[in-house]
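Late entry, evening session. Most of the bench is empty. Finally got around to the prediction I had been postponing all week. Sequence below, unchanged from the version circulated by S.P.
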Amino acid sequence: MAAEYQSIRKEIAGVPVEKLATEFGGTPLFVYDADVIKARCASLREFGTVRFAQKACPNLAILKLIKEQGVKVDAVSAGEILRALAVGYKPEEIAYTADIFDDDALELVTGKAFGCVVNVGSPDMIYQLGLALGDRADGFELTMRVNPGFGHGHSKKTNTGGPLSKHGVWFSQIHQCVQTAEHFGMDITGLHMHIGSGSDFEHLAQVCEMMECVATAIGSRIKSISCGGGLPTPYHTGEEYFDVARYTELWHKSIASLEASFGHKIELETEPGRYLVADSCSLVTKIQAIKKQEENVFYLVDAGFTHLPRPMLYGSYHPISIAYNPVNGGPTKQGTQEVIVGGPLCESGDVFTQEEGGVVVRRELPFANVGDYLVLEVAGAYCSAMASNYNSKFLAPEVLIEGGVPRLVRKKQSFEHLIANEIF
């Protein structure tokens, strides 16, 4: 099925855009559709264990919703472990995946969150974990993220494999890591491999082949295999949704082969982030100015890269639609025009219509007026999660619509909250 995005939008999950903006304190405003998240979770049930890479969208209400779908969770920091515990995840339902231990994370995985899956991404982590566990290290099972020597992603900045990537244990160091674990009485019983966010099927299939080779080299101690995340999401009209069934079938063949070789069951895991939440969310903004710079028309909105940083960081494309504000009485001119969409920040890079490398481009959008709403679509992954307070801009409120009923799941940041940790 191909994705289709409309240039004019009236509602989100059945609720009028203007009603959302009015009821929840104006714009910018993130709006999530719970039904989309539920559908994405359900589509991966054939994988065995599904873990949500919460770095894509760590809002507690979203985490709780995903937990209710039977999905476990991946954490990459002490803060993310604590978020998972806060919504009711048990330690054994949490996987901590990182390339280092900072003091807070090491304290958690050996203390309050003891029993969580520890997925190490560097040889030093194994040594540090063994020392921290002491006598408890004997019999401790951990998993290891392997850098297969190649990577892929929708941007060079989201490529997490290969010799220029900091992620994972280089494949030639695997046996050294096994020996270090054994020195402390620990055992590496699981493998994890992730090559990048937004990978295509061809590269994901290469992960499957490489993982089977690595597992075979380590041997029958392996009990679980995680194929990571990176499942692509369509951002352009006409792009096909990812063929989950085809990908699942590929992995089940590899797992069956390893099970026959090892003589025991192997748990298959996947770790999606973007795939579960990206197209569940829209960022609603308001057009505050329309200006012409020579031949270029600018729609300037009240959201900036402080709210949605992906275009500025990666040159990422987001579908854009216009929602007419009833107060304006509808469009004064029919048709479309080529425009540049920018935000309010004092940075030239604060433009939503740009390509990788900062190349500003124009987008064909409907004629609109100041006061109309502009909606940045597919904004559920790495948008609010990467927001900042640059220019002392407040973080946007977030709303979750479930069963046609919208509810606030994060308040708009206040000035008092903005400066709460500052001392003068």
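Two things to note before I forget:
The chain has twelve helices and 22 strands.
The first strand starts at residue 11 and ends at 12.
Will write this up properly tomorrow.
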